[in-house]
Each structure stands twice: as C-alpha cells, then as structure tokens.
Design goal:
Helix content: 25-40%
Number of strands: 2
Radius of gyration: 16 Å
Strand content: 5-15%
Largest sheet: 2 strands, antiparallel
Low-confidence stretches: 79-108
Amino acid sequence: SRSVAELRGLFIDCFGSLEQGWSFADTNDDNLLSWREFSELACQHHFDGPLRQIFMYLDLNNDSTINQEEWMLLTKFASEVGVGRGAASPGSPPSSSKGKRSVVPRTPPTR
C-alpha cells in the first residue's frame, strides 16, 4: 500500500531507521505503542494518510497496541515514489543514490 510505504519513508527520513523511530515513538517505555502514541507520532510529522487503517493493519494480534515486531512490519513496504532513504521496490537492486530517482528525459517521437 502506498500510504503505508509513505509512512515508512517518513519515519525513516525523520529518525534514520525504523528501530530509532520505535525508540522515539514508545513514549512511556512499555514496549508497546498505543493508538495515542502512534497517532501523535504520525501527526507530529504531518502524515495525513489513513492512520487508523494502518494501525489496525500493523496490530496483528488485535490487542489495540503495536509491539516492536508488529512495528517492524513497516520494513516490508518499500516506497513506490522514492520516499525514504534508500527505498526501493521489492526485488530491485540497491541504489547508491540514497532514494533519489534518476530522471531520463523523454525524446519526442520522430516523424
């Protein structure tokens, strides 16, 4: 999902890694993210995607919290729009340009 990939990219851009983002997000150090912690983190960083749906998707055991293992599910989403450092589509070779896409100019067809 593009929205999940965008959120993943945003967290990587803000924190350097999802692991560091987890440390920042878990404000009460209980090793769980509540809906409040998750939504506040996303809002602080101006994410306006479908937060509730993403939270529910990550909450695999339906306990209304996200544990670190569930949080790390974000790693499987690569950005399709170049959001996030080093983001690439699954199966694509690693990029040395740190997530920047090269742009090849289009040549108009000859008549």
